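Justification of computing resources. Each target in the renewal requires a structure prediction run like the one illustrated here; the chain below, 151 residues long, is used simply to show the kind of job we budget for.
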Amino acid sequence: MKRIYVKEEYCIACTLCEIHCLVQHSRSRDIIRAFKRETPRPIPRAIVERDGPNSLSLQCRHCAEPLCVYSCLTGAMHRDEQTGIILVDPERCIGCWTCIMACPYGVIRRGMYKGHPVAVKCDLCPDREIPACVDNCPNGALTFAEEAPHG
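Resulting structure tokens:
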């Protein structure tokens, strides 16, 4: 299964990964409408972390042993059997946040779906060949590959 890998030495904390992720997961898929007109505002699934001069973009790791899936009370958090991607079914999510507490990477966020709280996380942009965050990273800090790139 392909995953997103980060080369933190190339990340400049521009947050374009967050912006393009937010737009990709918006209803309009338009940057101005997504930021200014959509309510509630879409939530980016990529999170840029900064520590002084160091920065990196964090997304779901789609773990082999997904603690978020194991902790989910309703089965909303699940692994797609065909792709291996960890997904959230917003119709089943009750917003209990056990997945947020269980995730060792802190990449699951609180969101809204049809007026009720739900967990939100990276889905690897299933309708795109390359996830929006990777495709729009200006420095190549994000890669989408079968295994971690070397060098």
